Amino acid sequence: ILMHWTNGPGDAERRWARRLNAAGYAAVILKSYNRINGSLADFEKRVPERITHLKQAYSAISKKSWSNGDISVLGRSHGAWAVIDALKSNALKSKLRRAIAIVPRCDGPRGNPAVVKSKTPLLIVNGKHDRVVSPAACRAFVAAAKKSKKNIFLAEFNGGHSVDIGSRAVTKAVIKFLK
After folding, report:
1. What is the rounded distance in angstroms from the CA atom of residue 114 to the CA atom of residue 14?
2. What residue spans of 103-167 are helical by DSSP H?
3. For residue 72, which of 51, 46, 90, 54 has the smallest C-alpha distance?
4. Distance of CA 43 to CAs 37, 108, 135, 139, 170, Å?
5. Are the C-beta atoms of 101 and 77 separated by less than 8 Å?
6. pLDDT at 176 over 90
7. What angle do the packed helices 40-62 and 78-89 form, to 10 degrees?
8. Which of 61, 64, 142, 151 is deepest in the core (most CB within 10 A)?
9. What's the gap between Cα 169 and its chain centre?
10. Residue 33: other Cβ atoms inside 10 A
11. Side by side, which strands form the sheet with 99-102?
């Protein structure tokens, strides 16, 4: 399940779907809304709604004849916030096989990995030079996760907030994590 960023589904999600298809995975882009303009608080208000959409998508996909129940989620930016919050609340009762959060916000309300209730392994992908979200906050989040014995991992790459766009290294790391 691919969760889009703040601008609604776009080229980045379609590129991820093609990359995952090429690696042998089915990919479903989950549309929560179209572009929204607003403050950080406006985006935060949408996270619970996005988690509900993720639960609904998981339920629908798991019932499809082509689904083997081996379902993972990948979220970018704001979609990554929803991924982390879904794991914190264990909204899917640890049913997800893997979770990937690309350039998430790891500080603020997401800043304590000890409260992550889900046992789903999580890969956080960051650009070392991101000016939109704090790579240092994600490094601290993952370091604290290790102390709490959580299955949370970090992959950092040269780049900024769009570190995954066209990056073979990021694609390779995500595919490796999914296997």
Report:
1. 33
2. 135-147
3. 54
4. 9, 13, 19, 23, 25
5. no
6. yes
7. 70
8. 142
9. 17
10. 14
11. 29-30, 2-3, 73-76, 99-102, 122-127, 152-157
- Dist. CA 161–CA 133, nearest whole Å: 7
* First-to-last C-alpha distance (Å) of the chain: 16
Of the candidates 159, 151, 144, the one whose C-alpha atom is nearest the C-alpha of residue 177 is 151
What would the two tokens of residue 91 be?
């909204």
Close Cβ partners of 130 (under 8 Å, ≥ 6 residues apart): 103, 159, 160, 161, 163
Q: Which residue has the tokens 């999600």?
A: 13
For 80, the token pair is 């990554």
The answer to which of 33-37, 38-42, 166-170 has the lowest mean pLDDT is 33-37
Q: Please, are residues 87 and 64 in contact by the beta-carbon 8 Å criterion?
A: no
Nearest to 166 by CA among 5, 28, 19, 10: 19
- Between residues 129 and 37, the one the model is more confident about: 129
d(CA 80, CA 13) in angstroms, rounded, equals 12
Asked whether the beta carbons of 75 and 82 are under 8 A apart, the reply is yes
- C-alpha closest to that of 74 among 164, 7, 156: 164
